[in-house]
Amino acid sequence: MRTRTGADAGLWLYPGTIVQDAIRGREYRVSRFLGRGGFGAAYEAVRLFHVAALPDSCVLKVTIDAVTWHREAYFGHLLRQVPALVEVHDSFAWVPQERPAPLYCLVSEYLEEGDLGGYLHRNPSPWPEARARREIVRLLRAVTRIHESGAVHRDITPGNVFVASGGVLKLGDFGIALHRIGRREVAADAFTRRFAPSAIQDGAKSWRQADDVHQIGQLYANLLTGVATRKITAAEVKHLPCDPLTKSVLQRCIGERRKCFASAAEMLQAIETHRPMSARRVRSLDGRRLVFTGGLSLPRARAKQLARKAGAVVEDRVSHATDVIVVGDQSPHWKAERKGQKLLDVDREAERGHLIAVVKESRFLALVCRR
């Protein structure tokens, strides 16, 4: 058995140890060590009292960090019985006879498959898209509840998502979750660097709800690839075995921070309600702000010249002022099968109520040839 010193030694509980909630008189017997994490140490334990509708086995987490314990307990009780969240059953301070200071304890449901990182290590196979989508939708509904309360989780990683029977996923570990105070954003002062968004790694000072969404997008990719040890890149999304809508959603999550879904609710809406691109009939380009994307049969400079001659204002990027986008042949740089960054931006504008007309090159040529 490995010798434990310092803080580790203080969190070590031998199998058979009885831990008691002195206020309620509830007792738990430690069965086995499960692991060590940011919260403290986790053990499988057995309740020595009967609770209707709850199994005897549970997870007992102990820590010496009162702040982390308080956050876990607070969010656990605030969000109790929200589907797709690990259910917290009890929280209390315990003073063992051999210690002058308390250990802070949290009791939650025991999920037999452990965390997603370990599960995918043991079962390194991509999940079918329908199964992955179902579980991500469940997680998004739970995180929407968190975001609606004005909080962010800040640690939606494979080590904090747990696998229940039937492959059902549940989010846990609220040790660094935090509420926004007024309009002030939550500071980016606590996170797992390996799974943090690029903006956070590059020194962004605040953690936004969009940063939680970035992590959910990465989690979605973990399920589709069967790999949970690293983040996926935008280039890899193009080759995932999933439909174009899923690729579009993933690109929005893992791309530029300013273009990410602003909240879990926005990502959920994008998955559940496919917004087709505008089919508005464009009868004239006069006064319209226009963007080109993809390969055209004529040089791009010539196309821009014809557009300006027809009265259009040609722009390089899609914005809230864009009226028309002309779509040519697929580029090897397109990110989601038939969608590149500009078409992903068209979707983003549609979500905000701004519809942009999408026309093919043949329609564009017909419009400019009228002049």
Quick structural summary:
With 371 residues, the protein is α+β, with helices and mostly antiparallel strands. The protein is 32% helix and 20% strand. Mean pLDDT is 88; it is low at 1-7.
CATH superfamily of the largest domain: Transferase(Phosphotransferase) domain 1
Could you tell me the mean pLDDT?
A: 88
User: From the 3D coordinates, which CATH architecture of the largest domain would you assign?
Assistant: Orthogonal Bundle
Task: Give the terminus-to-terminus CA distance.
Answer: 84 Å
Structural class: alpha+beta
Count of structural domains: 3
Note the run of SSEs as H and E. HEEEEHEEHHEEEEEHEHHHHEHEEHEH
User: Strand order across the biggest sheet?
Assistant: 1-2-3-4-6-5
Count of DSSP helices? 12
User: Within the CATH hierarchy, at the fold level, what is the topology of the largest domain?
Assistant: Transferase(Phosphotransferase), domain 1
Largest beta-sheet characterization: 6 strands, antiparallel
CATH uppermost class of the largest domain:
Mainly Alpha
List how many beta strands DSSP finds. 16
Content of β-strand: 15-25%
Assign a percent range to the helix content: 25-40%
Q: What would the principal axes of the Cα set say about the shape?
A: elongated
